[in-house]
Amino acid sequence: MTMTPELSQANVDPAELAKFAELAHKWWDKDSEFKPLHDINPLRLGFIDRHAGLAGKVVLDVGCGGGILAEAMAQSGATVTGLDLAEKSLQVARLHGLESGVKVEYRCQAVEELAQAMPAAFDVVTCMEMLEHVPEPASVVAAVSRLVKPGGWVFFSTISRNPKAYVQAVLGAEYLLGLLPRGTHEYSRFIKPSELARMARGNGLDAVELKGMSYDLIAKSFHLNDDASVNYLLACRKIAA
Prior knowledge:
Layout: H1 5-8, H2 14-23, H3 35-52, E1 58-62, H4 68-75, E2 79-84, H5 87-100, E3 105-108, H6 111-117, E4 122-128, H7 137-147, E5 148-159, H8 163-176, H9 193-201, E6 205-216, E7 221-225, E8 231-238
Parallel strand pairs: 1-2, 1-4, 2-3, 4-5
Antiparallel strand pairs: 5-8, 6-7, 6-8
């Protein structure tokens, strides 16, 4: 992959971009490697809408990929911008939007760059399944905090770092069950909820609710619970000045 000077300086891992570029054409195939994202999307959407009330809100989806969550939020009545550095994924997202008729603005831009250009521009910022794929997650947390309005909402989802998470999210999901392609995750980049909450507080975000997201082997479905030891969602609110 040829990197532009701007992209080479961004908070991005070229290997991660290449990984998602190879799979970009499968984003909307619900039986592909992206099936887990389609399966958890209603859970993510409900969690976000319950706190923020998406209808009429101006929303930014950071690390939007092919637009699965972005389109769902737009269908819930929000004005949505999707942000990603994987151009092939954005091309798929734009094409799907033309087919579905769901309007989302997609931008290929680093979140830190957008934060400089558009501070306090959004009512809601989401950053789902993205922090564990970047070299400097704290930089992303700082940027999304700058992008959201005082009193606005920020939502993160990522994976905790502990032996159970390694067994379930890496060995189980990638090697045993085949829910994800092998090599999707790098264990050392997983983030404990306490670490993410600390990053949030350091950037003026108040952690409001933490929820775990677990996979039921028998029902073959995901559900929210209070066990945040593997996959989890964190709802934060920007502290008003």
